[in-house]
Amino acid sequence: MVAASAVASLVASAQGWETLQKDGVHDPRGPAVKELQEPGDALSKLTKDSAGNMVRWVQALEKGEINPRASIRPDTKIRIYESDVLLNLKGGMPIVRFPHRQHTLWLDCVNCHDHLFKAETGATQFSMLKILEGEQCGVCHGAVSFPLTECFRCHSVARPGQAVRPSLPIAIPAGAVPPK
Description:
Layout: H1 4-15, H2 32-35, H3 39-43, H4 57-62, E1 84-87, E2 95-99, H5 100-104, H6 128-132, H7 151-154, E3 155-157, E4 176-177
Parallel strand pairs: 1-4
Antiparallel strand pairs: 1-2, 2-3
């Protein structure tokens, strides 16, 4: 009979998840390693991705594969903001479509506004350098969300006359709000 930890190790390595014994974070000699759930066990049942931690978190949420608590306080009013915001309207890269809905399914507005981003349209100066240094979007992307190497997940709206990549929509999405 194959030990559960051996199966977890095989699944984890096939998906790109390192076992807790080998992840460089957990002490392989510590007693907690035997008690904690292996990433391969926890994540292999969720919608697959090709980057980062190999999970499409928003799709997993929408499919009901996960059901995170909205708040630790039962009386908290959950706000889902449906509008998209278009950013980077003057650059050379495709326009950034920021989907508020996908973000507010996980986080309340106060997690980002006003300390990471001003709530006023056009008030925040975005910088890829800051993002790459772990500020602004980089607080989560590259840490707990898909990595910053997945450029076209954010830069997803083609500019007029720009070569359209298969992953880029041709038109600006309905409900998108360009900054002033």
